[in-house]
Amino acid sequence: MGKTIKLEESVYFELDEIRVKGETFSQAVARLLDLRRMLSQLDPILRGQQAYQGWKSASERENKTAD
After folding, report:
1. 28 CB neighbour count, 10 Å cutoff
2. What percent of the chain stands above pLDDT 70?
3. Would you give the end-to-end CA distance of the chain in angstroms?
């Protein structure tokens, strides 16, 4: 059973623009939610990469001052 949601007109038109041909609004929202889930899984990876780069830069600076 479907549910009714209320969207601001601008959000409706934006969602309508990004829908794939033949895609329902429900399918478009599901696709966007899947994308959000995938991106949220990347967050810890990217944070770890940033931490590693910070550590690497600090380590290289320490090695240069030790020489």
Report:
1. 16
2. 97
3. 70
